[in-house]
């Protein structure tokens, strides 16, 4: 159960982080989970009420994820320092890791991005539907707005193909359906939020060690 929660938490914190550079502000998302698998359904219920807030200012971003009863995760990225730090408090266990930001991360050969002509409005922004397909993750549906331009030189390879800020993302992974929908957009943010100093009490892990913790499910 802890491994699954860690995987979902890391997915949420990294999916939007490299979109996180308009000029300055914050976007809050509601996160909903569901599953037809009884065991996964129990985990989904423990994550009820989950939220994610993405803060951004030129060259820096922060994503805070609260996963209901399961725990929290925070990711802070600094473009100038070329690094990203993540700390996770999951069911009483605390881990942290630091990674190097790549300017031009490679794109997997098996991934395709289709930007459709379908549109809808979210929080007053006109959003366009995009479908991201890969052998590993299946199909991810993204609704993005071109009215909020996004920095694309960050961490997730598929982001450079999406010309705007996602206000809705949905996908299925490990028998859990995940949906994130923006509920609030703010234009002010405190500079103090972008410190890359890892808080005390967290055990430092490598990115490979965290991947192993989230694997085998």
Labels describing this entry:
single chain, 217 residues, mainly beta, outer membrane lipoprotein receptor (LolB), chain A, 12-stranded mixed beta sheet, globular
- Class derived from helix and strand content: mainly beta
Rg over CA atoms, rounded to whole Å, is 16 Å
Shape, principal axes of CA atoms: globular
Low-confidence stretches: 17-21, 150-158
Secondary-structure arrangement, i.e. CATH architecture: Clam
Number of domains: 1
Q: What is the number of E strands?
A: 12
Number of helices: 3
Helical amount: 10-25%
- Describe the sheet with the most strands: 12 strands, mixed
Helix-strand sequence: HEHEEEEEEEEEEEH
Oligomerization: single chain
Describe the structure.
The chain is mainly beta. The chain has one domain (25-190): outer membrane lipoprotein receptor (LolB), chain A. Helices cover 14% and strands 46% of the residues. The chain contains 3 helices and 12 strands. It has helices at residues 2-15, 38-46, 207-213, and strands at 25-34, 51-57, 60-66, 71-78, 83-90, 93-100, 112-122, 125-134, 138-145, 165-173, 176-186, 203-204. It is globular.
Give me the secondary-structure topology.
Layout: H1 2-15, E1 25-34, H2 38-46, E2 51-57, E3 60-66, E4 71-78, E5 83-90, E6 93-100, E7 112-122, E8 125-134, E9 138-145, E10 165-173, E11 176-186, E12 203-204, H3 207-213
């Amino acid at each position: 159960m802890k491994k699954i929660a860690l995987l979902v938490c890391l997915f949420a914190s990294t999916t939007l982080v490299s979109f996180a550079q308009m000029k300055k502000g914050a976007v809050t998302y509601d996160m909903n989970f569901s599953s037809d698998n009884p065991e996964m359904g129990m985990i989904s219920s423990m994550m009820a009420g989950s939220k994610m807030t993405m803060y951004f200012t030129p060259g820096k971003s922060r994503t805070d994820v609260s996963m209901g009863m399961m725990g929290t995760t925070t990711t802070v990225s600094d473009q100038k320092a070329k690094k990203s730090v993540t700390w996770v408090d999951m069911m009483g266990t605390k881990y942290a890791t630091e990674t190097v930001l790549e300017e031009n991360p490679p794109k997997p050969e098996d991934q395709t991005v289709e930007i459709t002509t379908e549109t809808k409005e979210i929080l007053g922004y006109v959003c366009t539907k995009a479908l991201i397909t890969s052998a590993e993750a299946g199909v991810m549906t993204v609704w993005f707005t071109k009215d909020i331009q996004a920095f694309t030189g960050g961490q997730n390879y598929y982001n450079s193909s999406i010309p705007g800020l996602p206000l809705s993302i949905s996908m299925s992974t490990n028998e859990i359906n995940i949906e994130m929908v923006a509920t609030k957009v703010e234009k002010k943010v405190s500079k103090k939020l972008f410190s890359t100093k890892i808080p005390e009490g967290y055990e430092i892990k490598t990115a490979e060690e965290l991947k192993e913790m989230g694997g085998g499910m």
